[in-house]
Specification:
109 residues; Immunoglobulin-like
């Protein structure tokens, strides 16, 4: 399970877009899942390559100060690495962004 936090998503009425891509050395990258999680307040939509997947396939917990997103690794193809990017905005005003980062899940193997 991959878990990450986004600050005050519902509390200030902001929106968040998160992009996740799995990578495995034994599978072509083009075949690995590529997720887009669209969070608007308490509403969440999840897409895999623009195809809608069940919204409850990821878990979003929202509190007044913090929002947590939990994504099962199986949904990302049981990756060795994850590429992740995110940004938040309030209407047309950008609030914060996380440029693409790579997370190594192998523990340095």
């Amino acid at each position: 399970m991959l878990s990450f936090e986004i600050g005050q998503l519902a509390a200030n009425g902001s929106n968040a877009q998160t992009y996740l891509m799995g990578y495995r050395g034994d599978r072509p990258f083009a075949e690995m899942p590529k997720l887009h999680i669209d969070m608007k307040g308490a509403n969440t939509k999840v897409y895999e390559r623009r195809r809608r997947v069940p919204d409850d396939s990821v878990k979003v917990s929202i509190s007044p100060t913090l929002s947590e997103v939990r994504v099962p690794l199986k949904l990302l193809g049981d990756p060795e690495r994850i590429l992740l990017a995110a940004h938040t905005n309030a209407g047309n005003v950008p609030l914060d962004s996380l440029p693409w980062v790579a997370l190594d899940l192998t523990g340095g193997r």
